[in-house]
Amino acid sequence: MRASLFITCYNDTLYPETGRAVVSLLERLGVELDFHPRQTCCGQMHANTGFRGEAYTQAKRFVRLYQGAETVVIPSSSCVAMIRDQYPTLFAELGNESLRNDFAALLPRVYELSEFLIDRLGVEDVGASFPHRVTYHASCHGLRALHLGDRPFRLLQKVRGLTHVPLANLDRCCGFGGTFSVKNAEVSSAMLAVKLQDVAATGAEYCTALDNSCLMHLGGAMHRQYVSMKTIHMAQILASTAACPAEATA
Amino acid sequence: MSQPAQTHPVLDPVFAPPFPQAALTVLRNPQLRKNVAHAIDVIQSKRAKLVAEKTDWQELRSSASATRAHTLENLDYYLELFESRCTAAGGQVHWAADAAEARQIILDLLRQENATEVIKIKTMTSAEIQLNPFLEKAGINAYETDLAEIILQLGDEEPSHIVVPALHINRSQVREIFARRMGLENLSDDPKDLTNAARTWLRGKFLSIPTAISGANFLIAETGSVAIVESEGNGRMCLTLPRALITLAGIEKVIPRFQDLEVMLQMLARSATGERMNPYTSLWTGVTPGDGPERFHIVLLDNGRSSILARPRERQTLKCIRCAACMNACPVYRQTGGHAYGSVYPGPIGAILTPQLIQMQHAQSLPYASSLCGACYEVCPVKINIPEVLLDLRAQVTDQERHDLGRFFDPMYIGLRIANLLFARAWLFHTAQFIGRIGLRVFTRKDGWIHSLPGIGAKWTQTRDLRGLPDQTFHGWWAARHKEAK
Predict the structure, then answer these.
(1) How is domain A2-120 classified at the CATH fold level?
(2) A133-243 maps to which CATH number?
(3) Is A58 close to B479, i.e. CB distance below 8 A?
(4) Which secondary-structure segment (H or E) carries B436?
(5) For the whole prediction, is pTM greater than 0.90?
């Protein structure tokens, strides 16, 4: 199987280890990977802040770059949600017929990482080993836009040595919300404080998620408040093996 | 215990401060935040239990949503049907294009009744048109009869929620307000005593004031009837004792058939208060000689609603049945309560309804008062896709503002404009990543983290750190790996 990676703007810049982990995980599972060096951003930041024309430019760019791909894998649930929920509106408003057709053909081949593993590859046990106590934060987009359901838990369950500590109020937002975290910094921080209480109460060593944006928010507060917990994208847990543990891939 | 004097929140979108600023006042009030979070958590857990016991909840949502959408598609037809049926049953229908017209119609009707006092059932629509202060200026005292509204009126407070408007006030604060305003120094904060105090106070009003004002939960086109749901029975008193009744309702409140109440009432009670059925459901059709009010007037209010109706994607805003499930589920509302929204309609529904009611002339900060987590859409009994409407409104705000000279220097606008240029050309984006990495080194401490940033970045670093930029980007790593392989 061939798949094209889309490593979105902030992952490329801030969290390259997540992209590297996806590569090592998927290659281990026998997937042949492609990466477009010209890829940049899905347009979510612009769309969510009201810059619809700019978001459209980036959305169109994504379709043009990836329309020939067999499948597209994206280790970021909010970017996938952007593509699924917002691209149709953008293209209906601003696009032409050919773009809409190309997008409609591409969309069913776009997968979030856990969807790709479970729905496309049909694996739950990816042969990972991560002997740590881990709590899972369900990002809002993964939970409510992509309806990932129990996919993340099924993947975590099969990781050797991993103990999953359930997080209270799993469906509550961490307060990131993209530019919301800056435009409404104080409210965002108040939401973050509430979330961090629940996360810290798990006593886990790691907090994981399928979206680095929430983890950047939570991790930033953990570091500020000396919470002895680390954030880690689930791709890095799934890439981790006894021979090559996550710390080494990071 | 006396409460410190608090600065009054402004619940008029024309004058209210922007959301982030108004929210600060609340965030600095720990008692209020505690009251709000506690009340919300109680309602939320009751709702969750009662929704879970309905195995066909999603089908009910679809049905309620379809009924509301169909009504809005054919609103002119159903409104005219309602008017003719209500008139035939002895009611008088008045049409008000805006708040000023509605206020004047109501004042004229009250003058016809020679009223100097009027009792009121809790109605958000009357708060929307700011009826009470207007009547007061005209020399007519309006007395609220809903327990929460009494607390607010006597305490000179503002509503912070559309179903439980005094949820930001706790028991001991209620005791203080009642003791002070009813002259009951020895009142305890036992809910039973507080209820008794309110009951005694209310009885006097019910028995002496022959004119009432109500809102409406539903207008039934087929029969010309009006439906009101409530918990206390005080509304029932207002609907049955007075000689004249004036109902104020938004034009979107109509539903086609009596039978539609079957679904609507189930959705409303479970979503609003976490009850299988609300305690009092009152239905009346025009007037019935010898039973209830002799004169019944209904004022149908537009006040910006038809302009919302005209926009196909935003139209769904008007499907709202005012259950408040969205604000109860909202993580933003849970922190800020209702006052920060600067409108009588707070929470997610307020964030989309308020700016649209005033044709996007004010309240431009409200569509941004959301992290777009989608909890509101998930619980909405009539499936209003609030995040979708928020995004539409954000686009409208940006289109309004983007040519303002002031916005040209706004760091958010500059940042997003530059980002757009970079994202369109990978080589520029990669150059910017490189420059950013070098530039941010100044701010990166030895532990590899950024603790403080200047300008707009300070908004992030006021409460969170940021890991310093790693030396190699993903695309850089991929390119290097590819070269090696070759």
Answers:
(1) Rossmann fold (3.40.50)
(2) 3.40.50
(3) no
(4) helix B426-440
(5) yes
